[in-house]
Amino acid sequence: MELGRASHRPIRRVWIPLSLAIVALGVLACIGLSVYVGWQLTHKERQPITEAPNDYGMVYENVIFTSKDGETALKGWVISPQKPARMTVVFAHGYGGNRIQKNVPFLLLAKRLAAEGYRVILFDFRASGESDGEMITIGVKEKEDLLGVIDYAKQHYREPVALYGISMGAATSILAAAEDRDVRGVIADSPFSDLESYLRANMPVWTHLPDVPFTYLILAIVPALADLDLRLSSPIHAVNDVAPRPVLFIHSKDDRSIPYEESMKLYDTHPDIFQLWLTEKADHVKSFSLYREEYTKRVLAFLRSLESPSP
């Protein structure tokens, strides 16, 4: 019996350290993969600018804007109407996109607005298109970019300013409008209501990784590595500072990237002031493509309602 017990001791001595080593390697692998995925989420490959307004028969000006941070140069276009401008509308693109936002597409909508007498500004957020910057922050620092473009519009044009954004750009437009009281109103197509809670619930949609442990690891690692406070990108906490100015929310019930309930949360904060148009059968930010005429009519009607300041 003593010999039997002794024969098991070497096995235990090997098995326990080996098990610990395997667990440690697994943990390190999960952390390493989370760091890699987090880096990829904030350092998307830039999409090239493959079109210009003159491809759609529009006259435009190349402009370099400066972010509110005073450092980041942002490239973009100003499209002025053939007649005196009624208003300046700043377009804000989505995550990983750029000023043409081909999946909407921005330039086709800009042409319709310019034909109706609206000046349109399109630009690339930081780390997107042709703008400066190395990291996408999903609204945290993009707000500073949009505020810088709004400042340019106010300094160069006498007409009032409105914002039109999609996805990340829609959320960023709400954040910027909350800080700049000169913004008359916002058109927000498919925003998230709160970045941190949205990512916590939908990280597997972005990463295609299991929720546990990767969602928790990524949300812990990325803010630390990138020096970001995700709580700063929270339209639900900013929207009260937009009211009583109006917001038109547009969202598809069949959006597979950002659930339409995100827009409903925002709309429900001030249903007496805000507007909500829910579409069907359109994937993320595809309502314009699927309902082009109705989309344009609703956008134009909303912009016209902003032309006279509220009493």
TrEMBL record:
Q: Where are the transmembrane segments?
A: 14-39
Among PROSITE patterns, the record links this protein to: PROKAR_LIPOPROTEIN (PS51257)
Q: In its keyword annotation, does this UniProt entry include Nucleus?
A: no
The record's InterPro entries line, in alphabetical order, gives: AB_hydrolase_fold, DNA-binding_regulatory, Hydrolase_4
Which Pfam families does the entry mention? Answer: Hydrolase_4
Q: Which UniProt keywords apply?
A: Hydrolase, Membrane, Transmembrane, Transmembrane helix
Q: Where is the Serine aminopeptidase S33 domain?
A: 84-203
List the GO molecular function terms: hydrolase activity
Keyword Hydrolase on entry: yes
What is the recorded name of this protein? Alpha/beta fold hydrolase
